[in-house]
Each structure stands twice: as structure tokens, then as C-alpha cells.
Task: structure prediction
Amino acid sequence: MSGPRPRAGDPTAGPAADDAPAPVVPAGVPGPLPSDGERPSSRDDVTDGRLAATVERLRGEVRAAHAAAEGRALIELAKGVLVERLGCGPAQAARQLAALSDQAGLSRLELAADIINEAARDRVAEVADEFVRTVIDEPDTAGPAASVAVRLRTAESAALSADDTQAVADTLLAHALEPLGAVAVAIWTTGADGSLSLRGHAGFGPDEAARWHYVPPGVTTAARQALTGRRTVWYPSLSAAGIPSIGRARHPDGGRVVVPAGTGGRIHGVLEICWARPLDPQPQAVQRQIEALAELCAHTLEALPDATAPARSLRPAVDGARELAELSDGLYDPALVLTPHLDEEGRLADFRIRHANVHFQDPAGRPRGAVDGALLLEAYPATAGESELFERIERVYATGEPYRARRTRLTALVDQVPLTSLADISISRHAGSVLLIWRVEDESARLASLLQHAQRLGRVGAFEEDALTGDITWHGQLFELFGRRPTEAPVALRDLVGHAHPDDSGTIRRFLKTVLHQRQVGSAAFRMLRRDGVTRHIRVTAEPALGVDGGLEAVRGAYQDISAQHWTEVALTATRDRLVATEEAAEERNRLTLQLQHAIMPPVKPPLDAPDLEVAVRYRPAESESLVGGDWYDAVVLPSKKVLLCVGDVAGHGVEAATGMVVLRNALRGLAVTGAGPGQLLSWLNSVAHHLTAQVTATAVCGIFDPSTRTLRWARAGHLPPVLVRGKEAVDLPLLRGLLLGALAEAEYEEAELRLEPDDIVLMYTDGLVERRDTPVEDSVAQLLTMAQQPSDSLEQRLDQLLARSKSDTDDDTCVVGVQVS
Result:
């Protein structure tokens, strides 16, 4: 199959040329000259038309000659198979081929392809057979089934006999890919650095090929996606995938298939096929056919010299390994030279250790000779485990792209005990071998690196001064700290005063006296003035190193930039000062608010001048002065001799709540002079809260007692109802309708009337008397009723008992107003 390629017009080709496939004229080629009714408008147009027709005719003859030569190659190969099997001569084999084709009803070219497939039983034969079976099951598949074998064998024959990769691309497109609808093909090769080079192309313009002749490593293209993944990649539309590639401008919406071309586990290149339109899902037979073409490309890439480099003879993999072994012996790090180990089917199964260099150190303690020549997975089975080292070696061998990694976890089995270490590894491919280099991380180097990072983060720099020679060693961080160039001389401790703020010179002199004269460990903080005008706050710590005779030999120490810490402390001090001032202002504000509240709302109200009615009031402010609330009460005799009784609670705490309380209390007093009932008074008070205050909301209970009839008319605005104590029983009054004050612009409040009997007691209170965080309000009111019905000697004593026994835990203000009819 790889013999010399017959040329057009070869007299030895015989009559088989008649069976060569007819040339296919591409679409868009100019047709024959126009008829007389459509003559060109000028003599030049007629000349150009004839010239174009002549050129196209000559192209067709050239294509026909090439097709005839390729067809003759297949027929000659089939004749050779018959000669070998029948033991006859070439002439008899030609007659036998003709007779068999007549009997089978096939052309000699189709029969020749079948004979070659039967004899070869290779990948092409398998693909052709599968395609024939698929076509029988799927009649709609494009192309006659019998022509598949002819096309594939024709492409194979032409590719194997081609002189360069460009000819391979041309024959693949013409014979195998155009019948599948493809319009262009590109063949890429991979470099040792992971780059891609365009070795052959067909269907793309020369300018496009020139732009894509080389793709540097690391650039993501369609070909690199297949190379990195080592698998076939299908793009239904290249523009939708957003991946750049050759010919994208010409066929932006066309489909692409990119197939790695490799043999024996090594990828030699990439086959990229282009369609002009979006690509629909293809049958399995077509996919197998494309993979067979990629394998054919791999064989040709392996055999053909690189056209972009001087021709060179191919050396066996072992020779390449020998040269690599000599190179590895010059390395200071351990290294292994590996060559591929293939199974019976030619697939990569393992790597053979061809050489371990002179610096090789086996974790299990084995000598070099124990691993030389062994299989990698047998000598180091853990390479296929957690570290995935084997997979990385396999990938480098397949793609040629080097791999570098730091702090890779390597595991080795020592007496079946896994030992793990961290190492920097390097894997690269050279010819047909792989070089594996590793450097186990040194603990002292790692600790030194950590120390350097710690000094950098802590802005610390170490130094050492030799007291005998005067030599000074500075850590690199100190040059930046002092604002000096690394080429300048370090600053000696004795000269430190000249670099410090004048006000800190005494501090530095005391520090130097402690270290250099008293020979004790010393530390000092000072302000350093740099030449660039920057002031740094520095802390220096040093200790003397004494000799055997007690003399000073050296001084070791460190400088630390504490500027950030200093300014943080300054900011914290200023913040603390502002916080203290704010707290003092808040305390003064709360104190004044409490004084204002007590001035308006005394804890005990003086006796009220009302006939047949005793009034008692208790007010208990919040325990915390910062929680001054808005609870209020009032008990006053109106001009009509009726008594106004009310309690209320403004939402919130502080000056705003106290101010709102004053507004509502005084407003209610003024409105009550009109003689209106409690419901109307609360309705007016709601308008005051809504319109005439800054969003004040409050609850309240308002009552008007008429001493002449002993009648109490009352209403509530979102407040708890009053409590009636009659004899030994205490009950809460009905829950009348009434929205809290200030919630809406207009609101109506329900009134109720209660006729009191002698010795009846009515209690009005705010929620600070009963409210608990862990108890429902209903339960707290029930407890209040129980306490209210307890016997007492006077009304004043009863109110004191209620405050004393209250279990409220909300630290809120509390107001209680009690009235008793005599």
C-alpha cells in the first residue's frame, strides 16, 4: 500500500484506467461560452470567456489524470493481492479481476477496494464495513455505500504515497471529506513547547493559512481543545462556541470537527475539518470514518519530514533516550528517563525506566540498578494514585506540552507503608522519550522561606554587626525600611542618632549604652527621619554576643516598622476621648431629661381638692437613666367641678418621648376645659398627635368623674383598660374600641359609663406595671387583679403594694392613678 504512486499517462497502468473515477467539477466554475443569442458586448469579453473555458478544461484534465492514477494504484494493489493468493502472474491476475468484477456486477475499482479491505482487515476496512451496514439500515445516509471503501482506500493510497503534508490535506479533502459535505481541512503538528504549526491545508485561502501558520503555546484554539483533552471535539457552530480557529471569518457559522492524530499513545498532530454550515449530529459510522482519517494522518505525519525544518533522519526512541540519559546525568536534581511501553494492540500501557541519573535517590532506599529497566507502575505504583503523576506523564508524552508544578505531593511505598513528600516536578518530552525531574522540598529551605514571608508581613528586618571588623549584615527588608538603595552601605548602630528625630536622641543613646556598654538586651522606639521626607516609627531590639573572655564580638537584632501600630493607637486614643465625651454628653442629657420629667411628673402628687373622692398617684421612673420614657398621668378638677383622670404612654425614650408627653398632657388639659366627653377629648388629642407633633404616637386612658352622680365616663386609645376593685373582687373594665393616638389623621373612640358605689376603687396604670418579656399580657393582667384585691388600710398603701409586688422586668416607666369614692 505504500509503494510508488502511479502517474497519469503511465503505460504500465493497463486498461484499469477506464475504471478510474470521473473527475468532479467544483461548483462555481465558469461554464461554456455563451450562445450566439447571448454574445458578449466586446471582443475582449469573448477572449476572456474562451480563456476561462480553456483553463477550466485543462484543470479538469489534470484532475482526471490524478483520479486515474489513484484508481490505478488501488487496482494494481488488488492485483498484487491476487498474485500472492492465487500464485499466478500479473496478466492472469488482471484477467481474474476483470472476470470477478463482471460476475459481481461491480466496477474493477470497487472490487479492488473490497479485495484490499478483505486482505488488510485494518481500521479502514472496519470503517468501510460499518458504513455499509449503516447505509443498509439508514437509506437516507448520503452517498452510495459501495463508494465508501473506494474513497477511503483512494485517500489512503494517495496519502501514503504523498511527498508532503500539503498533498495529504488535498487528497483527504478531495476523496474522503467533500462527500461528507466538508469544505476545508487543516493538519496541525505539535511542538515540544506546546505550540501548533499548520503543516497542510485545503479549502482555505493562502492569506488565511499565512495568518495561522503558527499558534504559540497557551493560546486557546479549536485544535488545542482537542490536543489538551486528547479526544475528538465536535462544534456544531464555531461562532456559537466562541473558539478562534483558521477560516472562522469565511465560515463563521460552520461546524468543526477536531480530532487528535496519534499512534501508540503519542499525538503527532491534529486533524481539523470545516463545514460551511452548522453541523448536525452525525451517525456513528461517519464519526468512525473521521477517526480513521485522523489515524491515517498520524501515520503520514510520523513518516513525512517537517517541511518547515531541515530534513533529518528519524532516530529510534532508544537512541533519543541515550542522549537524554547523558543530559540528565549533568543535573543536580534526581531524574528519570522514560520511554513508552505499548501493549499488543499498540496502545500505551506504561513507561519503561531507561535511566536513573547519578543524583537519583529512591524513597524506598533501592539502588539505581533496582529501578533501571523496570516499568514505572511496577516500580512506583503510587504514581497512578493520589498524585496523578502517571496521567501527567502520559499527557506530556501524547501532546509534547511540558508540565511544571510546585509542591506536588509524591507518594512512595516503603515496605507497604506510604511515605509522602512535597516536591517541585518538571516533565518534558524529547523525541520519543520523557524526562521526569523532581526536587524534594528541603525543610530548612521551607522554614527560611516562611521566615522571610513572616518578616515581610511583620515589616521586620534583622541585622548583625561584627564588633571586631565592623562588618554589617542587613536583611533586605531593612533597606526599604530605611529608604536606602541596596547598593548603599548599611547604617551602623552607633550612627543611629543621626537618622532619628532630635527629640528621640536621648532614647537612642540610652539604648546604645544598654547594649554596647552594659552588654544587655535593649529595646527602644523612635522616629526615623528618612531622606525622602517620610517619618517612620521604628522599634529596635538588639542583644550582644559575647566571646569566651566576655568581650563583645557581635550585636544581633532587628528593626520593626511600627508606624501602623502607632497611628492605630493614636486613632484609638482619639476615639476613646470622643467616646468619653459622647458618654458624658449623653449622661448630662439624660439627667436634664429626668429632671424635666420629674418637674412635670412628680413621683407623688399632692392631695386633690375633690369632694367625696380620694385620688392617689404613683410614678416610678425607669431604673436606667438612659431609658427616660414618656409615661404620664394627670388628675385635675375642671371648672365644672368634674375631675379629669388620665394616664398615657408615649412611644420611645429620651428627650423626644418626654417632649411628646408634655405636649399631649398639656393639650388634654386645655381640651378638657371645653366640657367634652372622654371619647371626644381622645379624638381631638389624636389630631394633635398626628398633625401638630413630629410623628408622636401614644396610648392613653381618659376618664371624667362627676362627683354629683358618682359616674365615671371613660374611653381608651390603644391602652389597657382600668381595673375596678369592689369589695374583695377586682375586675378589669371592658376593652372599648379605640386606636392609639397619632396613627391616623381621624379616629373615633368608644365611651363607656360606670356608676361607682361607696368605697369603690378604680385603678389606671401604664404597661410598665405588668409587662414581662416571658409572660403574655393576659397572664400579667390576671396577676395584677390578684394583687389589687388584696386588703389594704388605705388607697396610698394599696398603690405602694402594687408597685412593690410588680414582677415587671422591662425596665420601663410606670404610672398608677387610683381613685376611691367615699
Observations:
- The radius of gyration is 52 Å.
